[in-house]
Amino acid sequence: MKHVIVSMVLVASLSSPASAFRAVNGYQVEQTGPQQFQVVYSSSRHETAYLCAAGDFVSRGLGMPSKTRIFRESPAPRKAGQGITFTLDEAKKVPMELFSSFGTKKGDGGISAGAAKSNYCLDMRFLWY
Predict the structure, then answer these.
(1) Per residue in 100-116, pLDDT tens?
(2) Strand 69-72 relative to strand 111-112: parallel, antiparallel, unpaired?
């Protein structure tokens, strides 16, 4: 039994990259460059869940201030089975067409990490009380 448990732990550790970050909503985020990161595909239909994960990664994963701007880098619509790539570099942005304007600055096409978290991350703590 001990060998089975050790094998399961080893397989689980090899299945996700060392640089993977688990967001508050359970989505996996992988840093793909100095200012780029991808929220890995999840079967959820809610595009805004990707934005929640991006905001959480910037705040908790990178330790950046909540006012840090996040921009979408991969074009919409995403293909089946693809995640969404985000960037902190405004020069590499594409329009965030599918997302609401909460927290956006007029004309910059981005959203702050704090606004992404507060507007798109569902706080499920109340379910446990």
Answers:
(1) 455 555 567 889 999 99
(2) antiparallel
Round to whole Å and give the CA distance between 82 and 75.
11
Measured at the alpha carbon of residue 87, what is the angle toward residues 13 and 33, in degrees to the nearest 5? 50
**Which structure tokens are listed for 81?**
């089975």
The answer to whether the beta carbons of residues 96 and 85 sit under 8 Å apart is no
CB 98 within 8 A of CB 51: no
Q: Biggest alpha carbon distance in the chain? A: 59
Write down the pTM of the prediction: 0.76
Distances (CA, A) of 84 to 4, 6, 14, 47, 119: 35, 33, 23, 9, 18
